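Run log // design_07
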C-alpha cells in the first residue's frame, strides 16, 4: 500500500461473525478480516453475548485487518459500524457492561409479549412506532429485566444496541443510531424522537433517563480514543460515524432506489425490504417501518428469524459438512418431489409465537439429502410469507435482489427464483454490512455529500437467475402443503392453550 492511499473502515457485527473491512473512496473492498462470535444460551430461549468478549473480538479483528493489509493507522480516514438490530446492550451507572447482552433472537420475553397482545398493547403502539412487538425488541427485554431481575433493572445507566455499544467502546461517546433505534418501540416514527408515552404504556418509563441521544447514520459521533487506538492500531482522533442497522446497509449495497425492487436478506433473519417515500395508514399488514438514510424516506420490511441460521444449526449437529457438499446433496434430488417438510422456526417464527421447528413427512426411505433439501425449501417458504405480504404493499415489483450467505449457492438461489416466480438479482458485494458501514464513514467525513450520491458511485455488478416456471408450479403445490401444515399446528397450539395441556 502506498503511503498516500486513504481508506475507510467498516465494521459489521452480525449474528455469527464480527467482520472488519477496508474500502477505498469509491467503495471498493481492499481487505476483510472475520472473527466468529459466540451466542450463549444458558437456558432455553436465551440468546446472549458477552459484551467484554465482543469488544475484545472487535479490537483484535481490526488490529489483524490493519496488519494483514499493511496499512498505516494514519491512512484510515473514518470508521463506520453496521450491526444486527433489536436486542439489548446495557451499561450500568458506572459505564460498565451490565450482564450479558441479549440478542434479537432471544425469546425469554415470550410470556410478556403474549400478555401485551392480550391487552392489545401492539395495536396501541403501532400508529406511533410503526413496529410490531417482538420478543427480541429492546422494549420487551427491558420489561423482562424489570420483572425478573429488578436489581439489575435499577442499575441501568444506558440503553444501547450492538453498534451503539461498539461505537461507545471506540469513542467513549454514547448515542443510539437512528436507523436502528427507530425500530425499538421506544421511538415515535412521526416525531423522530423518543416518546415517554411509549415507555409508560410498556411499563418501563424508569429507563427514560438512560436513553442516550439519537444520532444520525453519517453523523460523526466521536473520535477514536487513546485507549481504543492502543488496542485497535487505529490513530487516536480518527472520526467515527453513527453507522447503520445492517438491513439498511444491505439495502444500500443492493442498490434499492424506488418501489420497483425489493431486497431479501438471508441470514439469521429472513428479511424482505423496500423503500417508501412516506408513512401510510390502513395497510393490509402492520409493516415494520424504519428511518432510512435518505431524507424523508423509510425502509419498510417484513422479517422473522427463520432463515439460513436453521441450516447452520442443523449442520453443526451433524459435524463437518461443507456448503459444497450440502449443495450437491440438494441438487441430486428432483425439485419439489419429496414429501418431507421443514418448519424453519428454531429461533422464532412468522406463524405465531408458540410455533417451533421440526420436520414432517419423514419415512425410512428418506436420506440426509432429503432433510437438507427440506431445510432449503422451508427457509424459502418462510421468506415467501414475507415476500407475499410485501408484494401487497409494493405492487409494481419486477425483481428481487438477494443478499446474504445463501447467495453463494446457485442451488438455493434457483430454488428461490422457482418458488417466487421472480428473477433473482445478486449484487456482487461480498460483505454488505462492512461496505454499508464504510459508506456511512465516507459520507460522514465529507467524501460524498449524502448517501444517494455515494450510492451512485458504487458500480457493483449484478448476476441474474431466471425462474423455471415449470418448477414454479410444482413448488407452489408444495408451498401450499407447507401452509396447511402450519395451519394444522396453529390449531394444535390453540387446543393446548385452551385446555391448559
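design_07 sequence
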Amino acid at each position: 500500500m502506498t503511503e498516500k492511499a486513504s481508506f475507510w473502515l467498516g465494521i459489521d457485527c452480525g449474528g455469527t461473525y464480527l467482520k472488519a473491512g477496508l474500502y477505498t473512496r469509491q467503495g471498493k473492498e481492499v481487505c476483510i478480516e472475520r472473527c466468529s462470535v459466540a451466542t450463549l444460551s444458558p437456558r432455553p430461549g436465551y440468546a446472549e453475548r458477552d459484551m467484554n468478549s465482543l469488544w475484545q473480538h472487535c479490537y483484535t479483528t481490526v488490529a489483524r485487518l490493519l496488519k494483514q493489509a499493511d496499512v498505516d493507522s494514519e491512512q484510515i480516514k473514518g470508521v463506520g459500524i453496521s450491526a444486527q438490530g433489536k436486542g439489548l446492550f446495557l451499561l450500568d451507572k458506572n459505564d460498565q457492561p451490565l450482564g450479558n447482552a441479549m440478542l434479537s433472537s432471544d425469546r425469554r420475553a415470550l410470556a410478556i409479549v403474549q400478555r401485551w397482545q392480550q391487552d392489545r398493547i401492539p395495536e396501541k403502539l403501532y400508529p406511533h412506532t410503526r413496529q410490531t412487538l417482538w420478543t427480541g425488541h429492546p422494549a420487551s427485554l427491558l420489561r423482562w429485566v424489570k420483572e425478573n431481575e429488578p436489581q439489575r433493572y435499577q442499575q441501568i445507566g444506558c440503553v444501547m444496541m450492538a453498534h451503539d455499544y461498539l461505537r461507545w467502546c471506540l469513542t467513549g461517546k454514547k448515542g443510539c443510531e437512528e436507523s436502528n433505534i427507530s425500530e425499538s418501540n421506544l421511538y415515535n416514527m412521526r416525531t423522530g424522537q423518543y416518546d415517554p408515552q411509549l415507555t409508560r404504556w410498556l411499563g418501563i418509563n424508569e429507563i427514560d433517563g438512560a436513553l442516550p441521544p439519537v444520532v444520525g447514520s453519517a453523523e460523526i459521533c466521536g473520535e477514536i480514543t487513546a485507549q481504543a487506538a492502543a488496542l485497535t492500531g487505529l490513530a487516536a482522533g480518527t472520526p467515527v460515524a453513527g453507522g447503520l442497522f445492517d438491513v439498511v446497509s444491505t439495502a444500500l449495497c443492493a442498490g434499492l432506489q424506488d418501489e420497483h425492487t425489493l431486497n431479501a436478506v438471508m441470514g439469521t433473519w429472513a428479511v424482505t425490504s423496500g423503500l417508501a417515500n412516506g408513512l401510510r395508514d390502513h395497510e393490509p399488514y402492520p409493516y415494520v417501518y424504519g428511518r432510512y438514510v435518505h431524507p424523508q424516506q423509510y425502509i419498510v420490511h417484513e422479517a422473522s428469524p427463520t432463515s439460513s441460521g436453521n441450516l447452520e444449526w442443523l449442520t453443526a449437529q451433524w459435524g463437518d459438512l461443507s456448503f459444497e457438499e450440502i449443495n450437491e446433496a440438494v441438487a441430486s434430488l428432483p425439485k419439489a418431489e419429496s414429501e418431507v417438510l421443514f418448519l424453519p422456526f428454531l429461533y422464532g417464527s412468522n406463524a405465531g409465537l408458540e410455533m417451533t421447528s421440526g420436520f414432517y413427512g419423514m419415512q425410512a426411505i428418506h436420506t440426509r439429502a432429503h432433510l437438507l433439501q427440506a431445510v432449503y425449501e422451508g427457509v424459502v417458504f418462510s421468506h415467501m410469507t414475507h415476500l407475499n405480504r410485501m408484494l401487497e404493499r409494493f405492487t409494481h415489483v419486477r425483481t428481487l435482489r438477494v443478499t446474504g450467505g445463501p447467495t453463494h449457492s446457485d442451488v438455493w438461489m434457483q430454488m428461490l427464483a422457482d418458488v417466487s416466480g421472480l428473477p433473482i438479482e445478486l449484487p456482487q458485494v461480498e460483505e454488505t454490512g462492512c461496505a454499508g458501514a464504510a459508506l456511512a464513514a465516507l459520507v460522514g467525513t465529507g467524501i460524498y455529500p449524502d448517501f444517494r450520491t455515494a450510492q451512485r458511485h458504487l458500480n457493483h455488478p449484478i448476476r441474474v437467475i431466471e425462474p423455471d416456471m415449470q418448477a414454479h408450479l410444482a413448488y407452489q403445490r408444495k408451498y401450499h402443503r407447507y401452509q396447511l401444515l402450519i395451519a394444522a399446528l396453529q390449531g394444535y397450539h390453540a387446543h393446548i392453550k385452551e385446555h391448559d395441556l
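The chain has two domains: 7-247, 255-428+468-501.
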